[in-house]
């Protein structure tokens, strides 16, 4: 996709605005803004009006959902390994630092979703969010698109799920609680490891793993069960038995209702960026990665199976899952499969 499903509005730039570079976007009516506050320094926002906000996942996809809503493109969480980097290239934007700093904002997402949900053609299917980039990245603090999106879904009692690394999701706790009264709401938080040093370099724009686990805890305290996508498990950097144990222990302590491990995958776009990072921070691992990922984007099946089995055993040991005593909870369709259900390593392309 380039800018073909985005209807852009006139460049009525304000104090912060300036006309977008037509060569960059292939359009001359994107409103481009920068904000001179510490959290947004160096970030450029491209505000567009989308023609459609409900996206159908291609039939051949391995995704366990059919419809997604993604109000943003690009992500200031800036995870080095992010698989969505490639999609920035579809917009003629840079997949490296550009993915972290050039954020496309579909400013009309809530009103558009409300209209599409009201259409007679819409069947009320489950809608997944946070599947391409994080809908609770820092930009959401400014643009506040998610409250309108959640409200629209709630008004139509439309089931939905959110996957995030952002603590900002707690801002919408009341809305999520209200939604959960009328429809199935599945929230998952992504925490691949708890190593602070690794976090600072490989996920530099994200809240710390402990803060994300606080989100899991807080949601649980408010009656909204929250699963953890243990992603990614990073070969040779977060995969020792002790590291896996510590991560699963912390996830269990936060009260997660499920844990689903995903081993790092490196598709084009992410692969180049991650390999450059590896060369700077862990040069001794470059050859090992070349061997481990010699056959493509995914680690070998034997490796994925090993991680899945280890996490599975740890999850049982720490009592994570639907069998957790005293924590009876319906497993909703929106949840990632509890780890006990994963006989085979999974290759879902989620955060
Ligand atoms: S992995 Fe998720 S949180 Fe990290 S940069 Fe990508 S979309 Fe953002």
Automatic annotation (TrEMBL):
It comes from the Bacteria. InterPro entries: MJ0683-like, rSAM, rSAM_sf. Gene3D superfamilies: 3.80.30.30. One of its GO terms (molecular function) is metal ion binding. SUPFAM superfamilies: Radical SAM enzymes. It comes from Streptomyces collinus (strain DSM 40733 / Tue 365). Keywords: Iron, Iron-sulfur, Metal-binding. Residues 61-309 form the Radical SAM core domain. This is Radical SAM core domain-containing protein.
